[in-house]
Each structure stands twice: as structure tokens, then as C-alpha cells.
Specification:
Elements: H1 7-10, E1 16-17, E2 20-21, E3 26-30, H2 34-47, E4 50-54, H3 57-66, E5 71-75, H4 83-91, E6 101-105, H5 110-119, E7 123-126, H6 131-172, H7 174-181
Parallel strand pairs: 3-4, 3-5, 5-6, 6-7
Antiparallel strand pairs: 1-2
Length: 182
């Protein structure tokens, strides 16, 4: 990996970004290389994220079973369970299926990239990458997740409003309830 400039030179530490409370976001970093995993954790921590680490896919799945992260960053090539296997397992977990997932690899190929995207990866980083690349990918995924949540909240609010109006109409005209259930 190329030398990485201090993140704070590129991105000031901030408490929120696009309405997201950065300091409250949990990121799981999965990589069998201790140095890379520690470096990524240090960069993300410096930016204000809470970081959990796993040395392989199996350890990561044990973490995800008990604590759902806000975002997952996983190496592709690892022993025990590779990044594609972790991605597939996470997408099959009802409680974690929507967690943004970034794959990273030093052996980036068109086929590998396509496999990751078809499997449900949200982004793909090719090693070596800079701290700026990492932070931009993380913030981009989190912003997209925040947009998705806002859209879901808006739809839910709309449905609640429609249901409340329907109930008011039924309460005002109980004869309609009898006709609707007949």
C-alpha cells in the first residue's frame, strides 16, 4: 500500500455528515492481514467511526450475529470463508441483509468485480487505495443508506396517514365496515 496521509488533512473530523452522526456509526473491518486491518481501523477511527475487526469470515459472522454493524468492509481473499462467502451469508441474514458491504482486494479483475456486484456488494475497492478513497467509499455508502432510510420513512408515513384517514372514514360511517367485511 502507498503511504497514507493523515486523514484529518483530507477530511476534518466532524460529528455529522449529511445528517448522519458519524461518531455513532459502527463499521466492521474483515481482513486476514493484521497490518492492513489495523491500518483501516486506525483511519476509520480517526475519522470518528467505531470499528470492530475480524481476521476472517467466520469470525466476522459471529460478530454480526450479536452486533449488526452500520457498514462492512471485507477483503475478498481470506482463509476459512472468503469475502464473497461473507457477503452471501450477510445477504441471507434477515437482520443484516441491508447493511452496506464494501469488498476490497489486491487481485482486482473484471470477473471478480462483477462477481462481487452480482452477489450484492455495494462498492469495490482495489488495493492499494488511499485513505481518501476509503473515506469517500464509506461516506458514499452511508449517504446512500441514509437516503434509503428516509425514503422508507416517507413511504411509511404516507401509509400511516392513509390508514388513519381510512379508519376515520370507517368510524364516521360504520355501515361501510359491515359492507367491507361482508
Amino acid at each position: 500500500m502507498r503511504p497514507i496521509r493523515r486523514v484529518s488533512a483530507d477530511f476534518p473530523k466532524i460529528g455529522t455528515f449529511l445528517g448522519m452522526h458519524i461518531s455513532m456509526k459502527q463499521i466492521l473491518v474483515i481482513d486476514d492481514n493484521d497490518q492492513i486491518r489495523s491500518l483501516l481501523a486506525a483511519i476509520l477511527s480517526e475519522f470518528g467511526f467505531h470499528v470492530s475487526q475480524a481476521k476472517d469470515g467466520r469470525a466476522a459472522l459471529r460478530i454480526i450475529e450479536t452486533c449488526i454493524p452500520d457498514l462492512i468492509i471485507s477483503d475478498v481473499e481470506m482463509p476459512c470463508l472468503d469475502g464473497y462467502g461473507v457477503l452471501g451469508a450477510v445477504r441471507d441474514m434477515p437482520h443484516a441483509a441491508a447493511v452496506p458491504f464494501i469488498l476490497m482486494t489486491g487481485a482486482a479483475t473484471k470477473e471478480g468485480f462483477r462477481r462481487g456486484m452480482v452477489s450484492g456488494a455495494d462498492d469495490y475497492l482495489s488495493k492499494p487505495f488511499t485513505a481518501t478513497d476509503l473515506i469517500e467509499a464509506v461516506l458514499s455508502r452511508m449517504a446512500r443508506q441514509a437516503d434509503w432510510r428516509m425514503e422508507a420513512y416517507d413511504r411509511l408515513s404516507k401509509w400511516r396517514g392513509q390508514a388513519a384517514r381510512a379508519l376515520e372514514q370507517l368510524a364516521a360511517h360504520p355501515e361501510n365496515l359491515e359492507a367491507a367485511t361482508a
